[in-house]
Amino acid sequence: MWICMVYNETDTSVDFRLCRDFGLILSILSLIYLLVCFPLGLCYNVLLVVVNLSNKVSMTMPDVYFVNMAIAGLVLNLVAPVELLSSTFTRWHVWEYNNEVYITLLILFNISSLVIMYSTTLLSLDYYIERALPRTYMSSVYNTKHVCGFIWGGAVLTSFSSLLFYVCNHISTKMVECSKMQNKEAADSIMMFIGYVVPALAVLYAFVLILRIRKESTPLDQDSARLDPSIHRLLLASVCVQFVLWTPYYMTLLVHTVVVAPGYISSARYLPIYYFLRCVSKLLAFSSSFAMPLMYRQMNKNFSNKLQRLLRRLHCRDQSCPRERSTVQQVVT
């Protein structure tokens, strides 16, 4: 429930008015997201997945990672309306959910965030491998598909440890085993380290390697041309956008673990500001579910051709159309 409830309803103080203003701003932002960003993200994520899976032969290593991020984006699209229509985000809430629903939404959100961050990280590392060792096919589509499967498995296992802390934080303290684990800050610390610190360091390392190999000309440089040059720009843009949108959320986890939970911020004056910033940071994280497919649609030169081939196949399904000759180079998997 919105933190302004800590004030008396008849209170006319500056702090109460500020809290009410925060609630109004957050309600408007949530409504804008639901009316604009949510349908765009849903449509473009579905389109990205369907178009690429219908053209499996022409899929490249980056395409597999972006499909993986699009599926995670669809999970965020499932979570977003349930949370944004509750009293936590809007004054005009439609429903209230119990602790069980809260934990389910949180776990789905954590799994999606881990999949998105690690897909971005491994895309950076595989791009370096593709540039450094183009003849080895270590970063082939076949290998990337298996890697994406491990990403989802690892995200579920990582979220399971956090799930234990969250569940024990919401049930009775009579259970001795759970009473020792009632520490939500521990779950936030796990997510902060595994979901942000590790991917950030890995991406930084990958970018150092990519910059080094771009400066050093090698005899294999001509083979790296089998990667579309636009992929480098798409990689830079995707990494920057993902970290810009997800960093505020993970910073609020850090603040909650280090400052809020131990009680360093106990004044009612600062709590509304913290919860407002936390909700805004989660809105930014939800925004990654539509920012990424839009960017992929605009910056990937082959996407339009794949979409046109799919539309032609759908048009020719009930007609006798001549066999289409694909001009896309097949990738060895």
UniProtKB/TrEMBL annotation:
<dbReference type="GO" id="GO:0004930">
    <property type="term" value="F:G protein-coupled receptor activity"/>
</dbReference>
<keyword id="KW-0812">Transmembrane</keyword>
<feature type="transmembrane region" description="Helical">
    <location>
        <begin position="24"/>
        <end position="51"/>
    </location>
</feature>
<feature type="transmembrane region" description="Helical">
    <location>
        <begin position="102"/>
        <end position="125"/>
    </location>
</feature>
<dbReference type="InterPro" id="IPR037487">
    <property type="entry name" value="GPR146"/>
</dbReference>
<feature type="transmembrane region" description="Helical">
    <location>
        <begin position="273"/>
        <end position="296"/>
    </location>
</feature>
<feature type="transmembrane region" description="Helical">
    <location>
        <begin position="234"/>
        <end position="253"/>
    </location>
</feature>
<dbReference type="InterPro" id="IPR047143">
    <property type="entry name" value="GPER1-like"/>
</dbReference>
<feature type="transmembrane region" description="Helical">
    <location>
        <begin position="190"/>
        <end position="213"/>
    </location>
</feature>
<feature type="transmembrane region" description="Helical">
    <location>
        <begin position="146"/>
        <end position="167"/>
    </location>
</feature>
<keyword id="KW-1003">Cell membrane</keyword>
<dbReference type="InterPro" id="IPR000276">
    <property type="entry name" value="GPCR_Rhodpsn"/>
</dbReference>
<protein>
    <submittedName>
        <fullName>G protein-coupled receptor 146</fullName>
    </submittedName>
</protein>
<feature type="transmembrane region" description="Helical">
    <location>
        <begin position="63"/>
        <end position="82"/>
    </location>
</feature>
<keyword id="KW-0472">Membrane</keyword>
<feature type="domain" description="G-protein coupled receptors family 1 profile">
    <location>
        <begin position="44"/>
        <end position="296"/>
    </location>
</feature>
<dbReference type="InterPro" id="IPR017452">
    <property type="entry name" value="GPCR_Rhodpsn_7TM"/>
</dbReference>
<keyword id="KW-1133">Transmembrane helix</keyword>
<dbReference type="Pfam" id="PF00001">
    <property type="entry name" value="7tm_1"/>
</dbReference>
<keyword id="KW-0675">Receptor</keyword>
<keyword id="KW-0297">G-protein coupled receptor</keyword>
<dbReference type="GO" id="GO:0005886">
    <property type="term" value="C:plasma membrane"/>
</dbReference>
<keyword id="KW-0807">Transducer</keyword>
